[in-house]
Design goal:
Elements lengths: L11 E13 L2 E14 L3 E5 L6 H8 L7 E6 L2 E2 L7 H8 E4 L11 H11 L4 H14 L16 H12 L6 E5 L7 H18 L2 E6 L10 E6 L2 E5 L2
Parallel strand pairs: 3-8, 3-9, 6-7, 7-8
Antiparallel strand pairs: 1-2, 1-4, 4-5, 9-10
Helix pairs in contact: 3-4, 3-5, 4-5, 5-6
Length: about 240
């Protein structure tokens, strides 16, 4: 399968002819060059590419951490490129990020890292702990690990906490940037299975960018990215 059929826009992420350039000492680099793709809730979409191919920039554009120079990004019926788009609300409520370097706060416990996004979103404190404990339990983080500081956790544990944190505000879209890049193969398989389960059991739209071809086993749809350009590939 290499293309996604048109569906209900409330269930669809659609990127149309998006481009992004950066100015460097040697001139201008087009990191993303006229890219189009579609991804749906309930499915895993994988973008495979080497370092420097533009895949992380594309993920940041979809997550509104960067603004495109041209093109459109429609996320579940919302045009996030329009001038009046509420991008803070979009990032807090619609998108969950999972990063290669985990991006946890080292001095906070697993539980505190997961409740933090809820606190920032104004979730009542009495609701935060119960939801965080449930999310962490779903990732296999229970008991003493709830109170373990992130700095003392293994890479696999940190990534599972990071996924729980990404789910804190029940987003539609999970954006994972090289989620297995700092993990051993066994921990990496666990993380990929968790991400796939979020799509198939909970109806999340999961978009993974990676250089790891083994992740294609979890993909419903897949693309190859090179030199800022994207093409569909068979899975």
């Amino acid at each position: 399968m290499v293309a996604v059929e048109q569906g209900n826009m409330a269930d669809l992420l659609e990127v149309k002819e998006v481009s992004k350039s950066f100015r460097v000492k040697s001139g201008e680099v087009r990191a993303v060059d006229g890219v189009s793709l579609r991804a749906r809730k309930g499915e895993v979409t994988v973008i495979l590419g080497p370092s420097g191919s533009g895949k992380t920039t594309l993920l940041y554009l979809i997550g509104s951490l960067e603004r495109p120079d041209a093109g459109e990004i429609n996320a579940f019926g919302e045009d996030i490129c329009r001038p009046d788009a509420d991008l803070i609300a979009y990032r807090r409520k619609r998108v969950g990020f999972v990063f290669q370097m985990f991006n946890l706060i080292p001095s906070l416990t697993a539980l505190e890292n997961v409740t933090l996004p809820m606190d920032l979103d104004g979730v009542p404190s009495e609701e935060q702990r119960g939801r965080a404990e449930k999310l962490l339990a779903g990732m296999g983080i229970e008991g003493r690990l709830l109170r373990a500081r992130a700095s003392r956790m293994s890479g696999g544990e940190k990534q599972r906490v990071a996924i729980a944190r990404a789910l804190a505000n029940d987003p539609d879209l999970i954006l994972a940037d090289e989620p297995t890049g700092n993990l051993d193969s066994a921990s990496g398989r666990v993380v990929v299975d968790i991400l796939a389960g979020l799509a198939r059991r909970e109806g999340k739209c999961v978009l993974i960018v990676t250089h790891d071809e083994s992740i294609l086993r979890a993909a419903d749809w897949a693309y190859q990215m090179r030199d800022g350009k994207l093409r569909g590939i068979e899975v």
